[in-house]
Amino acid sequence: MPQINEAHRKSVGPLEMPPRLLLGPGPSNAHPAVLQALGLRQVGHLDPSFLNMMSEVQELLRYAWQTENRITIPVSATGSAAMEATIANIIEPGEVMLIGNMGYFGNRLEDMASRYQADVRTIKKPWGEVFSLDELKAAMEEHRPKVLALVHAETSTGARQPFEGVGDLCKQYDCLLIADTVTSLGGVPLFIDEWGIDLAYSCSQKGLSCPPGASPFTMSDRALEKLSKREGKVPNWYLDMSLVGKYWGAERTYHHTAPINMNYAIREALRLIAQEGLEARWARHQSTAELMWEGLEAMGLEMHVPKEFRLPTLTTVRVPAGVDAKAVTSKMLNDYNIEIGNGLGELGGKVWRIGLMGFNSRPENVVTLLAAMERVLAEVGYKK
Amino acid sequence: MPQINEAHRKSVGPLEMPPRLLLGPGPSNAHPAVLQALGLRQVGHLDPSFLNMMSEVQELLRYAWQTENRITIPVSATGSAAMEATIANIIEPGEVMLIGNMGYFGNRLEDMASRYQADVRTIKKPWGEVFSLDELKAAMEEHRPKVLALVHAETSTGARQPFEGVGDLCKQYDCLLIADTVTSLGGVPLFIDEWGIDLAYSCSQKGLSCPPGASPFTMSDRALEKLSKREGKVPNWYLDMSLVGKYWGAERTYHHTAPINMNYAIREALRLIAQEGLEARWARHQSTAELMWEGLEAMGLEMHVPKEFRLPTLTTVRVPAGVDAKAVTSKMLNDYNIEIGNGLGELGGKVWRIGLMGFNSRPENVVTLLAAMERVLAEVGYKK
After folding, report:
1. Prediction ipTM score
2. Residue where a domain stops, chosen among B274, B302, B328
3. pLDDT (0 to 100) of residue A361
4. Signed CA dihedral, B141, B143, B147, B148: sign only
5. Is B33 on the interface with A (CB under 8 A)?
6. pTM score of the predicted model
């Protein structure tokens, strides 16, 4: 046997992490009951008790997303993989995919779609704006796509894209509709079936108040039909829903080992949503966000997105002239253990991103944030 | 707003799962300290404390795998995704990939490689056997592959493929070497650099005693060079190491949100390995397995793999004539809360698969298993 190399045998103690209040674009703090479920002792991934739990997760997720879709599951990875799953399963090489790009995650959709050899067409909006139904109709007429992808809640801008009428438009053009609901599921009114959305993805660490690592995915019967008629195999084994669907479906055919404890956690997170009720949960997110908007405006700050299209889960706040944006986020983190996000891409240096999601959407967090912001802004020389 | 559909608003209580002892092919029970780390409150995925922890994880993983590779990280998904990451990054369409298929996971490699348009060539062994260096040399001479993939520890058969000399053989033919170490990392002697392995993958839920959901992946500088010279983008966004590597490297460029808590857990699991030391850990796995083999043999049972190539982490035990294999696994689970595995594929109905991995590799588990097996076998009519 070769000599063992001891160079990397690092001696470290048990993990100690700072007690952050996560009010950035995500992850948001998990609900304590979710963390408790996460730490439960495991069973096997084909154990009857686990298979039963998988059915509960699917059922609870159908409620949270307001869908009857059979394939409504958590993908065994983080949200970007669930995003990729929508494209990998539905796009065949050369097909036209139209992407409504109004921020960072629109760019990501373009990158992913090109890797699956879609004929990518894009319509763009300045970061912080949304598409009107007329604009979408004109683009559908021009590009005649097989798939349209829109971001319901753009985490980089805080804008909420209205979906009313979009599903009907897609049916009219025989096109499938993908929705990014990463920052809306569990916090913002969202109706997969009513809105005619064919494929959607989300994450666990925002509106669901669960750690990242298991990511909601759903597809309609129309989307399944397209999948079943593919010429070749899905060019991504791990995310191939013709295989994954059999593990989560009645067959329970082994595909990959599911992340057991992450599924414990997401079940608890979804259980808490069913217990609270969607109407109450959406109202809570709206009223907590309004409390914050009022407080920030009272400090002389401006919100980047008009109220009509502003997400309650994620707010972009304009950085006042003369203020060093990153100095503020650093001070918030280092002096008060509060994470808020910097701007991304076009909005880099121009906004802060403040999230109030799931368990963290509570008035006590708003008053804590406002008090800390006020002190930090004063320290960096900001005057109202 | 549309009416909320209450049909799927399932009312369930907090999760209660049976207290299983997981002695199947995996997952194996997590170490209690790992479960504790898993349930810690989160920080953000770009928090300085998290970035520091990521460095620790990489360093500890280099020790466990015995490698100096810069790219040595947990992929943000389960083991099959780490398997797919090796292929997705390294194969370009039309390149010859040679797969040593000696079990279920060889089949999976073939399926994945074909999705990435490799020119797949296969050499096969009956399930339970391994390849000799001469056989590998002859196949290299015949197929002249760009990439050779071998399974170090075949979870479906319990066989350990020797790697001595294989790396040199690959260098001689200017070929990259992939190793599946899913059931060997943390339990079986394994030397990535000494053996000249270019890409390897594993999982967290076996020898590391961590829940599934973050999966070790490593690639050598030779492999990185091939990646950097690709004609097109990696056809898998989530697993593209030219992007993922920048998040884990000095740049810390945002790619996807890492599964925070799974990384807490894997850090603790790897910390426990560094604390125990590889030599002691490998010796413990070997002696615990031998204790079980002796006990099973004393009951008149036969091991499927000759001792020379038998894994200490996963043992295939032949089902005696006249015994209903599944009746035994069901009784073990239902009457004693002990999970052991059924045979897969060619070995379906012919063997049981018993794992003694990581935290579960302890004499007390062996005596528990033997006592329960003896009773269950008697109940189904087995006589020595």
Report:
1. 0.97
2. B274
3. 98
4. negative
5. yes
6. 0.97
